[in-house]
Design goal:
Layout (H helix, E strand, L loop, with lengths): L11 H21 L11 H8 L10 H12 L21 H12 L11 H17 L8 E5 L2 H17 L6 E6 L4 H9 L7 E4 L9 H13 L3 E8 L11 H11 L2 E5 L23 E4 L12 E5 L2 H8 L31 H11 L1 H24 L3 E8 L2 E6 L8 H18 L6 E4 L2 E7 L7 H22 L1
Parallel strand pairs: 2-3, 2-4, 4-5, 5-6
Antiparallel strand pairs: 1-7, 6-7, 8-9, 9-11, 10-11
Bound molecules: pyridoxal-5'-phosphate.
Cofactor: pyridoxal 5'-phosphate
Family: Belongs to the group II decarboxylase family.
GO molecular function, one term: pyridoxal phosphate binding
Length: about 475
């Protein structure tokens, strides 16, 4: 190649050839991903020896760099969209959104302020309004912002809650969340400067739901001590078990006690589009709600979302007016999203969500989400029929926790922990499926999160059969 020179340009033909080659790789991956192994295992030493090099001062042929990346970089990552990727929260993604991201990047659209990209801001408003409607938030005053993910959405919510409820002085403020709440909430609370003494972790009951009584007691105790309870974070689908806190009852408490009601629905909010909607009753009463399109709305990374009851809460929290932005202030309805959150320069995240929702239609998303919920329930039925398996937490919003515990073996807790840990280690080491453990009430259990619409019951059965083989091997070792 003659170029690139200081202009960082390629010729028209070079760009096309390079771009088409990348599209071929991506399409090939979408078609064949489920035949690959979902798990990658590599040490720092291995990656060092493969990838470390001096900064390249001189050019390398574009195709050579691309080939190197496709050969050495891309394969050394887990395939989170694989049908047998069951752990953490899978990222099934979809092709329309992947291409939409390519458009957003290709045109390098600045999605910070209205003046720079009125249509991008409008699409964010339009897509946000769709979500406000799905979750029963007011579309007239309600609002929100697309973020990098659920963590950033939670952080944005808590900064807003603190400003509205505490103003400048939050030295006496206390905040409440359950022992099953996602770690990103604690992280956010610490990032924004709360001390450990201001955080109340409320225990959950036997079903992993926040205990209302313990919440009430904690609030009352703090009031007696002259502290200022200001915010409650509930989970709409915990990451561990899919459990939804009693949202309606928590909403009542928040109203009575004048607390900000934040719901972290990063995992489970999508279940609003399924027959589990009644479980989420009360979600519409939150002051702020985190949902995470790059989880159960099948978007590629990164897109999270924060919805709020009143969009003015965001602008009054995040608006700063530096001199160099004075020419770009528009009128009120023309939203500058840099005034609604932390980021100034923002990529055009709304585009992929908009294009995929429009292309497939909301009904297709509903079918996919319902399929996932049904799949977890079928998995539970299979496990319940077996003499080898015990359900530890039943199928809840497409998550199920279980362990190998043959009925006639009378294994003790320590043995069970070891066996189930080893089953997971072996299946991961085989790289055939990503299935890791979690800990529930002190027990090591296997956890499946089934939000991939391409996962079949056969994929699950094959994996369970492998697990049983490993489990039986462990029993032999024991004898
Ligand atoms: C995944 C998750 C988060 C964090 O979201 P990211 O998109 O990973 O930043 C927060 N809360 C819950 C319940 C989650 O499942």
């Amino acid at each position: 190649m003659e170029k690139p020179d200081h202009s960082l340009e390629l010729s028209r033909e070079e760009m096309k050839q390079y771009g088409y080659k990348i599209i071929d790789h991506i399409v090939d991956h979408f078609e064949t991903q489920d035949t690959k192994k979902p798990v990658t295992i590599a040490s720092r030493e291995e990656m060092d020896s493969l990838l470390t090099e001096e900064i390249p001062n001189e050019p390398t042929a574009a195709n050579q760099v691309l080939d190197f990346v496709m050969q050495h970089v891309i394969p050394n990552s887990n395939i989170v969209s694989h049908a047998k990727s069951f752990s953490f929260v899978p990222g099934p993604s979809n092709y329309i959104s992947a291409m939409a991201d390519t458009i957003a990047t290709g045109f390098n659209i600045f999605s910070g302020g209205w003046a720079a990209s009125p249509a991008a801001a409008e699409l964010e408003i339009v897509t946000m309004n769709w979500m406000l409607e799905v979750f029963g938030f007011p579309t007239k005053n309600g609002g929100g912002i697309f973020t990098s993910g659920g963590s950033m959405a939670n952080l944005t919510a808590l900064v807003t809650a603190r400003r509205i409820k505490c103003g400048q002085d939050f030295s006496k403020a206390t905040i409440y969340l359950s022992d099953q709440a996602h770690s990103s909430n604690i992280k956010a609370i610490k990032v924004i400067g709360f001390k450990k003494e201001q955080i109340r972790i409320i225990p959950t009951d036997i079903e992993f739901k926040l205990s209302l009584n313990k919440l009430k007691n904690a609030i009352a105790k703090d009031r007696l001590e002259g502290l200022q309870p200001f915010c409650m974070i509930a989970s709409a689908g915990t990451t561990n078990t899919g459990t939804v806190d009693p949202l309606n009852e928590i909403a009542d408490i928040c109203k009575e006690e004048d607390l900000w009601f934040h719901i972290d629905g990063a995992y489970g909010a999508a279940a609003m589009l399924s027959n589990k909607k009644p479980l989420l009753k009360g979600i519409e009463r939150a002051d702020s709600l985190t949902m995470d399109p790059h989880k159960w709305f099948f978007q590629p990374y990164e897109i999270g979302c924060l919805l709020v009851k009143d969009h003015n809460w965001l602008s009054s929290t995040f608006t700063e007016k530096p001199e160099y932005l004075r020419d770009v202030e528009g009128n009120e309805s023309e939203i500058n999203f840099y005034d609604h959150g932390v980021q100034l320069t923002r990529r055009f995240r709304a585009l992929k969500f908009y294009m995929s929702l429009k292309t497939f239609g909301l009904n297709t998303f509903k079918k996919a989400i319902q399929y996932n919920i049904d799949l977890a329930e079928q998995t539970e039925a299979i496990l319940r029929k077996s003499r080898n398996w015990e359900i530890v937490s039943p199928a809840t919003l497409a998550i199920i926790n279980f362990r190998f515990n043959p009925i006639d073996r009378n294994l003790n807790e320590k043995e069970l922990d070891l066996i189930n840990q080893n089953i997971s280690n072996k299946i991961v080491f085989s790289r055939e499926a990503l299935l890791v453990t979690t800990v529930l009430q002190g027990q090591i259990v296997l956890r499946m999160c089934l939000i991939n619409p391409r996962t079949t019951i056969q994929d699950i059965q094959n994996t369970l059969e492998k697990c049983e083989i490993y489990g039986n091997e462990e029993l032999k070792v024991k004898v």
